[in-house]
Amino acid sequence: AQTVTQSQPEMSVQEAETVTLSCTYDTSESDYYLFWYKQPPSRQMILVIRQEAYKQQNATENRFSVNFQKAAKSFSLKISDSQLGDAAMYFCAYCEGNYQLIWGAGTKLIIKP
Amino acid sequence: KAGVTQTPRYLIKTRGQQVTLSCSPISGHRSVSWYQQTPGQGLQFLFEYFSETQRNKGNFPGRFSGRQFSNSRSEMNVSTLELGDSALYLCASTGGAGGPNEQFFGPGTRLTVL
User: N or C end: fewer C-beta atoms under 10 angstroms in chain B?
Assistant: First the structure.
């Protein structure tokens, strides 16, 4: 069965600095999708960034970028110029195209002013 | 465009009761998925519906069921509630321009079982 592991329960970063959240996954499939979702205290789950496994180029969305290493089954999220509004739980998720997201345990990101 | 809506936002029930949660997807989205979020088990997939048919089901007991209506609105039902069913229940819809796997989430229903 596919699994997603986030080894950092909590991370903290100084405002305006850069932070990287780690995610590894286990699968025998070659086609799949990976996501990073953000869940602020309001509990609304918000998509941050997505990556299709067949694309070698790493996805980027403004201050958010990923480092996708398919062979290593690694999918880390880099947040540049951290802002107070980035404070939230961040979840890494995997999907094979059957609409079933498999989630990591989450990383709590704390932004220090 | 309105986002995914879930009602009610909060519910308190007692053990043995049943509960029905509702989810209205983004207009034009035909796939609705449900997830359970608890501190102990994290986020777990319950089921997914498309065009009124359940296409995929997670590893939950038969007390958890759902359905989808012709307007894509979905309901999930939990019968014979147990204390462990206390959770945030999230609904997500899919079908926008982002592709079939980009799921948009509602605010969730917080269920407390006493």
Answer: N
The ranges of chain A with pLDDT < 70 are none
- Tell me, letter by letter, the H, E, C secondary structure of B5-73: EEECCEEEECCCCCEEEEEECCCCCCEEEEEEEECCCEEEEEEEEECCEEEEECCCCCCEEEEECCCCC
* Chain A: closest CA distance from residue B106 (Å): 7
In whole angstroms, what is the distance from residue A103 CA to residue B66 CA? 21
CB contacts, 8 Å: B43 with chain A: 91, 93, 101, 103
What are the tens digits of pLDDT across the range B48-71? 999 999 998 999 999 999 999 999
Chain A's closest residue to B46, CA to CA, is A100
For B:1-30, CB contacts with A below 8 A are: none
